[in-house]
Design brief:
The protein is α+β, with helices and mostly antiparallel strands. The protein contains 7 helices and 7 strands. It binds 2-acetamido-2-deoxy-beta-D-glucopyranose. Keywords: Disulfide bond, Endonuclease, Hydrolase, Lyase, Nuclease, Signal.
Length: 222
């Protein structure tokens, strides 16, 4: 049995096929993820481990470690899960360094899984290759050394309360923009965020206050 179409029907079919084709092309060449700044999140392991419900690796690192470098938006959610997905082989040569400055803290997680999650959820939405993404984050951490900034103002990790304002000021003194301090239960310092614009020079910009629940009180445990 042969199917014959009227001319009008053929035209409709043709138009529909063209629309489908254009739609497919628009997905294949999707715009890169939209975001208006980067957030370098460095975690304070002692604070993370004191305030979280999960068990931490032992020993707990005694300096700030990288959580991630996140393409971010001031007013809308971060882009997530772009492409390509994580390929472990691409960061083999960086691993010895990553294990020191970007360790997973959760006992039940692994470094590889932590790096995979950071790449899949954040890095894959950046304009960088996977290798460059991990290199950029590590380089930004070296150039935004929180330990050095705090030490320069006499702030050391005593495990006791410090004035939040003094911590903020010590960082501002060096980067000239507002960092965002993340606390758990308003007093345990768990992370410090420093933000950058999306130009290739990654200039410092003020961090927005992303989540009111994470804001620190006037004193933070560090
Ligand atoms: C930050 O500076 C401290 C000393 O001030 C140093 O021990 C540490 O290795 C530095 N961290 C990074 C990531 O460069």
């Amino acid at each position: 049995m042969s199917l014959s179409l009227s001319p009008a029907c053929s035209i409709m079919l043709f138009i529909n096929l063209m629309i489908l084709l254009m739609y497919t092309i628009s997905i294949a060449f999707a715009q890169p993820a939209a975001f208006d700044h980067y957030t370098l999140a460095q975690q304070w392991p002692a604070g993370v481990c004191k305030s979280s419900t999960f068990k931490c690796i032992n020993p707990i690192p005694s300096s700030f470690t990288i959580h991630g470098l996140w393409p971010s938006n001031k007013l809308s959610p971060h882009p997530r899960k772009c492409s390509p997905s994580f390929d472990h082989t691409k960061i083999k040569s960086l691993e010895p360094q990553l294990r020191i400055v970007w360790p997973n803290l959760k006992l039940t997680n692994t470094n590889i899984k932590f790096w995979k999650d950071q790449w899949d959820n954040h890095g894959s939405c950046s304009p960088w290759t996977q290798n460059d993404y991990f290199m950029k984050a590590m380089s930004l951490q070296v150039h935004n050394n929180l330990t050095t900034m705090l030490q320069a103002k006499g702030i050391t990790p005593t495990g006791g309360p410090h004035q939040k304002q003094l911590i903020t000021d010590a960082i501002k003194h060096k980067v000239h923009v507002d960092p965002f301090l993340v606390c758990a239960a308003r007093r345990y310092l768990v992370e410090i965020h420093i933000c950058f614009d999306v130009t290739t020079s990654l200039k410092h910009v003020n961090c927005p206050t992303p989540n009111p629940a994470q804001i620190c009180g006037t004193h933070v445990i560090y």
